[in-house]
Design brief:
The complex is a heterodimer of chains A (567) and B (313). Chain A is α/β, with parallel strands linked by helices and 567 residues long. Chain A is 50% helix and 11% strand. In chain A, the strands form 5 sheets. Chain A has a 7-stranded mixed β-sheet, with helices on both faces. Chain A has a 3-stranded antiparallel β-sheet with strand order 13-16-15. In chain A, strands 8-9 form a two-stranded antiparallel ribbon. Chain A is globular and about 80 Å long. Chain B is of the alpha/beta class and 313 residues long. Chain B is 50% helix and 14% strand. Chain B has helices spanning 13-24, 65-75, 100-107, 122-127, 140-150, 163-185, 190-210, 221-231, 237-246, 251-258, 264-278, 283-292, 298-307; strands at residues 6-9, 29-32, 44-47, 58-61, 84-87, 92-93, 98-99, 112-117, 131-137, 155-160. Chain B has an 8-stranded mixed β-sheet, sandwiched between helices. Chain B has a two-stranded antiparallel ribbon with strand order 6-7. Chain B starts with 5 loop residues before the first strand and ends in a 6-residue tail after the last helix. The chains are: A alpha/beta (567), B alpha/beta (313). The interface between A and B is medium-sized, with 34 and 29 residues.
């Protein structure tokens, strides 16, 4: 049985796979090991299916049923729909197959799925990408000194994307351990920004799962496909597919490939930092840590939380609109947003290149799969500073063994731990602070109105400039107090710019890129123009709203905090 | 089956009862207590040296919630990933109502944690009367270890993965038990008491859900089951405290009479504040808090609750 998946990504010709050098990151060997990895994935998936009586039949039935349903429904692409008769035929035949035939069919399906999921890594494409990216951003700049050369281009990109956190320590740990990045997720740019940040600071590149819809753009697809990205088709609900995906992700981590997982699953629609995490694929890294510990492999698995903080978000409008729609009970997977449209990217970068610190990546303190701190060799450390043996976590009644149900518990607990880290490592940018103060004003002026009522207040609420600046100054001061207590961070600009300049920076960042104007500066007063956009940008501050408010703003802040607590 | 000793932390009535229950199951027990009292039964070694607990796999913690953080920090030196930690407190930490299982996880390297709750009172547990309880944990081995340690023909132990649900339910039932004692003390009739406690459980469920708990946990042994025992007269300390307050005793004296640390005293006000921040209604907790600090008398309390508008349940 043959199943058509969209063609695998374009590759540069090469006679033999790249032979990694000793100091290359593990992922440079992906092409060489790919076949081996896929075999291992299929072997494990098959073993799990066969472990249960009737498991093969169940798995085949389930995948055939879900795929038949999906392809028969409206959201399948025409070329996929051609597969429908084959899946239906399978659904009819499964009951009559013998175990040998079932095994062969399932293995065939699992192999195809694994091959469809698996990415590649071409070091040439990697070197090209990291070399050309600064120039690309430079080209998009309108400023006259375009021919500044590599150094200037890099300077510009460094100014645009700032990286903070224990980077030196992470570099040391990366020599001994496999880093698993678990950042917040707000934009499709996240993986690109992180990839750049890692490269720029001498950290190994990472493999990561990207939505299949992103692979439809030929250029984007080429880079992703050759830079370790693997394809995640969120429309496929079959357990077999999810199992293949998760196993692939886990095997990569086990083999020492640095990996990136967005524990929130999808981009934050509301703009809030994730509070409840699904973890999903990140659970594969917890399992990988357990397997490596039991096998006494020298390399441990170290999780690195990170926040990615934008002053301007590429997809802000689509995301917040989707959030508002979802509140009205119509959740769907965004297939077409700003990401797929090249002209939006160009407009986005055009806007950004003249601003510094438009994006701040902050790496947090690393931890092990069980939530412990780690030392410079990536070894687990207890709260009182002792090195502890991770095998203890896999031991029951004195017997060490791998137990998937236990990994589920550990994964859930890691998911409870990360949101607190995200808050602590959130870096507040100018647009977020200004949006917060403006939106709080809107809430204050519209008591008793809910969020849906409030989004209709376009241009109806304005704040006298002097009042707004005073509010902005007081709120920033309180934010500084929170920062001093280690609860959140301010970007350097938010901490140092005069409030008039902060306001000016925020309004000019908003104008010209977003199709809607968030707030209009009329000189003597600032007008709230687009409540959804303001809501989106200020939501990052929702968890801190109460602490940021004075007496007069407290009721509005409470409302903002309560709404932000259930994103 | 592991024959490692069972660790028990806390020499109060509940800690001692847990130790006796484990000894009755033929397990050797290490009972850690700061005061190191005499062993309550054969097979129990009482110690004030926490390093001994390293030999145990399961450690049951029965100390009042204000001491949990410091006890956990002390245990941290001796425990690691091999150990299982289960607490039996009705407390929640701080204004954020943080579950104590989180505190245990933060202060120690132990990750397989749990909570023991339900209608288990110390005297009945120690005496071996037929009882039932519930273990909230994400880990099957924790559930099994608690059953192996103290479960048996006289103690049926159910389990749930909704850890925070059990912790919030236990805390809120403690609060409502206090209210039950108080109402009985001032002569509130069965019907009125039922209304108060039913609405109180609905409040508990709202608070719980805001903290990530599942609603159905409140219908089970950790919630309604536990509360039924209090109303049926299991003479738990919370009920005694409520009755003493109803007699008009000042708080300090009432607490002395109840004879145990009672979490509800500090929790009521924090629940009220938490609810206000989360945009939830918590009239029962707010009223109990006012009664505890003496700002509201019996008549005032009833009048205030009855004055609230009633709507769809």
């Amino acid at each position: 049985m043959r199943l058509v998946f969209p063609p695998a990504g374009l590759r540069l010709p090469r006679l033999r796979p790249y032979l990694p050098r000793p100091d290359d990151p593990a992922i440079f060997g992906l092409d060489l090991e790919r076949k081996d990895i896929l075999q291992e994935v299929v072997r494990r998936v098959m073993a799990r299916c066969e472990a249960r009586p009737g498991g093969l039949e169940y798995a085949l039935n389930e995948v055939a049923f879900h795929e038949s349903e999906r392809l028969a429904s409206g959201d399948a692409r025409p070329e996929e729909r051609a597969e429908l008769p084959r899946w239906r035929a399978l659904l009819h035949r499964v009951g009559r197959m013998d175990e040998t035939e079932r095994r062969a069919t399932l293995r065939e399906l699992a192999s195809r799925m694994a091959d469809d999921v698996a990415g590649r890594f071409d070091p040439r494409v990697y070197r090209f990408a990291v070399g050309v990216l600064p120039h690309l951003v430079g080209r998009l700049s309108r400023s006259e000194d375009e021919d500044g050369g590599t150094t200037r281009a890099l300077d510009r990109l460094d100014a645009l994307v700032q990286v903070e956190g224990p980077i030196d320590r992470l570099r040391v740990i990366a020599r001994h351990a496999t880093l698993v990045l678990v950042p917040t997720h707000s934009s499709h740019l996240d993986s690109i920004v992180l990839g750049y940040a890692l490269h720029r600071h001498g950290l190994p590149p990472v493999a990561y799962g990207a939505g299949k819809n992103l692979f439809t753009h030929p250029l984007l697809s080429f880079f992703m496909h050759n830079l370790g990205a693997y394809r995640v088709d969120r429309r496929i609900r079959a357990t077999l597919y999810k199992d293949v995906l998760k196993t692939y992700a886990g095997v990569l981590v086990e083999r020492g490939y640095g990996s990136l997982f967005f524990p929130g699953g999808t981009r934050s629609r509301s703009g809030c930092v994730e509070t409840r995490l699904k973890l999903g694929l990140a659970g594969a890294a917890v399992e990988a840590a357990a397997r490596n510990a039991l096998a006494r492999r020298a390399r441990s698995v170290v999780f690195v939380p990170a926040t990615i903080n934008y002053a301007l978000v590429l997809e802000a409008e689509t995301l917040i609109d989707d959030w508002l729609r979802e509140r009205g009970k119509a959740r769907y997977i965004i297939e077409d947003d700003e990401t797929g449209r090249v002209e939006r990217w160009v407009a986005f970068f055009r806007k950004l290149v003249n601003f510094s610190a438009a994006c701040i990546v902050r790496f947090g303190e690393p931890l092990d799969a069980w939530g412990n701190a780690v030392d410079d060799e990536g070894r687990s450390v207890s709260p009182d500073g002792r090195r502890i043996d991770p095998v203890g976590y896999l031991t029951s009644s004195g017997r060490a063994a791998h137990e998937p149900a236990r990994d589920v518990g550990y994964t859930q607990q890691l998911g409870e731990l990360l949101p607190a880290r995200y808050l602590r490592d959130t870096v507040v940018t100018s647009t977020q602070l200004v949006a917060h103060v403006l939106y709080r004003r809107l809430v204050r002026s519209t008591p008793g109105v809910d969020v849906f009522g409030r989004i209709r207040y376009r241009g109806d609420v304005s704040v006298p400039r002097a009042e707004l600046l005073a509010d902005l100054g007081a709120t920033r001061e309180r934010l500084g107090e929170l920062e001093a207590r280690g609860r959140v961070r301010r970007s350097r600009l938010v901490a140092t710019l005069p409030v008039e300049v902060l306001l000016e920076r925020a309004t000019s960042l908003w104008s010209g890129y977003h199709t809607r104007v968030a707030a209009r500066d009329r000189g003597t007063e600032i007008v709230v123009e687009d409540p959804p956009l303001l809501l989106y940008y200020q939501n990052r501050l929702a968890p801190f709203a109460e602490a940021l408010a004075d007496e007069a703003n407290l009721p509005a802040a409470r409302e903002i905090a309560a709404a932000g607590a259930r994103p | 089956m592991s024959r490692m000793p069972v660790g028990v932390v806390g020499g109060g009535p509940f800690g001692r009862a847990l130790a006796v229950a484990a000894a009755r199951n033929g397990r050797s027990v290490l009972l850690w207590s700061r005061r190191a009292p005499a062993a309550p039964a054969p097979g129990i070694v009482v110690t004030d040296d926490a390093s001994a607990l390293e030999r145990a796999e399961l450690v049951l913690v029965a100390v009042p919630s204000p001491h949990i953080a410091s006890i956990a920090a002390m245990l941290s030196r001796w425990l690691d990933g091999r150990h299982l930690l289960v607490h039996a407190s009705r407390g929640l930490e701080g204004d954020g109502l943080r579950p104590l299982s989180h505190v245990l996880r933060e202060r120690t390297a132990v990750r397989r944690v749990g909570v023991l709750a339900g209608p288990i009172v110390a005297a009945a547990l120690e005496a071996g009367a037929p009882l039932g309880g519930i273990v909230g944990t994400l880990f099957g081995e924790v559930e099994e270890a608690v059953r192996a340690a103290i479960g048996g023909p006289t103690l049926r132990l159910y389990a749930t993965r909704d850890v925070v649900g059990v912790e919030v339910a236990a805390a809120m039932v403690g609060l409502l038990s206090l209210a039950a004692g108080f109402c009985r003390g001032i002569g509130v009739g069965p019907g009125s008491l039922a209304v108060l406690l039913s609405r109180g459980m609905a409040e508990a469920r709202r608070i719980g859900q805001a903290l990530g708990a599942e609603a159905r946990t409140f219908e089970g042994l950790a919630g309604h089951g536990d509360l039924l025992a209090a109303v049926a007269g299991d003479e738990r300390p919370e009920v005694r405290l409520g009755r003493a307050l109803a007699r008009g005793l000042p708080l300090a004296e009432a607490v002395r009479e109840a004879g145990a640390h009672i979490e509800g005293v500090s929790i009521a006000r924090r629940v009220q504040r938490f609810a206000a921040r989360a945009g939830l209604e918590a009239p029962v907790s707010a009223t109990i808090a006012d009664v505890i600090d003496g700002s509201l008398g019996p008549e005032g309390a009833i009048a205030r609750l009855m004055a609230r508008p009633a709507g769809l349940e």
